[in-house]
# Entry
Amino acid sequence: MELRESIVRALRCRECGKEYPVAPDHVCEFCFGPLEVVYDYDRLVGRLTRELIESRPRSMWRYRELLPIDGAPSVGAQNGFTPLVRARNLERVLGVSELYIKNDSVCYPTLSFKDRVVSVALSKAVEFGFTTVACASTGNLAGSVAANAAAAGLRSYVFIPHDLEQGKVLGAGIFGTRIVGIDGAYDDVNRLCSEVAGKYGWAFVNVNVRPFYAEGSKSLGYEMMEQLGWRAPKQVVVPMASGSLCTKIDKSIKEFVKLGLVEDVGTRIFGAQATGCSPISRAVREGSDLIHPVKADTIAKSLAIGNPADGYYASRVIRDSGGWAEDVSDEEVVAAIKLLAETEGIFTETAGGVTLGVARKLIEQGRIDRDESIVVCITGNGLKTQEAVVEAIAPPRIIEASLRAFDRLAEADGVRPAG
# Structure
């Protein structure tokens, strides 16, 4: 039997536990801790079943009871349910027995997992009565806010560092959004957006609507478990910018276990960062609860958050799950992008190169078990960050439009004509 009303109970401070009414708010007024959505799960036990979920359209909203909106989604109703690919060629190269790619590089409509979080944030913003939406972004979020806002008839502003990849700037501007480039790094952009949100009263998806926005990430975890045949993986490798995705995948697994939809197999969470911006992986490796902000310097710009908002919580989830975190150089990022493309036909952006590069490193270190199931989360499309790999790809060989010219090229390649 379907439950029509929302099971969201309140917002709760992740530090002191104080609860607040459901509203566009994100910080505890007592201790300044971040707020998180809390649910009354008891109302779903025995009512949200595998059969009910499977009967619904293939989108992220087939798990709608566990997402924080009150009615039907008003934004992004078709988003989500991306492929989970069994990566057999990659398994052979890496020497592992069971490896999957959760491929959000083809997420609708803007080819990144941000379409999940934006769908929830804008749907909630509409419920709250906002007509202007905005974000601070390292690229993918800007494009997703711009596209989903355009489709929903909302006015949008996106704030970005001035030096983003052109593919991501173009990928936001085409939707008619107002792009504001900031002469500074992402952390400067984010600081300004907190001030703008308070003064102009807009819905900033990753500022005052952040508790709802972040919940959208859980849909990636739900899909992963359903697509594995209603089981949780033993190991998941997740890219980290703010660190939020790590915490939400962990939360999605715990929710499905709590509701009896999957068995608890003790899933371990592994975090991935680029060496040029690795405050969370460094904290995990050092066994520290302190996240030391850094100045980002990496080609993986979508992960270049030097002072990650959820860094502490991500490091705690990783440690508590028995996982680990690592980082890789820009050269290793490019090598991993090529490896994924050449083995599985998936062109990922730099963040995906970070994730696969770290997965490979952790397998070689023995921290990821070769004989247990592994899911690698690919969160964005390579067409957006072509600058990163253009030097790594051999240019086309130009020949005359004659068979004789091709014969010479084929002979040089060691290829002989048929017969």
Summary: The longest helix spans residues 350-365. The chain has a mean pLDDT of 95. Residues 163 and 181 are 8 Å apart (CA to CA).
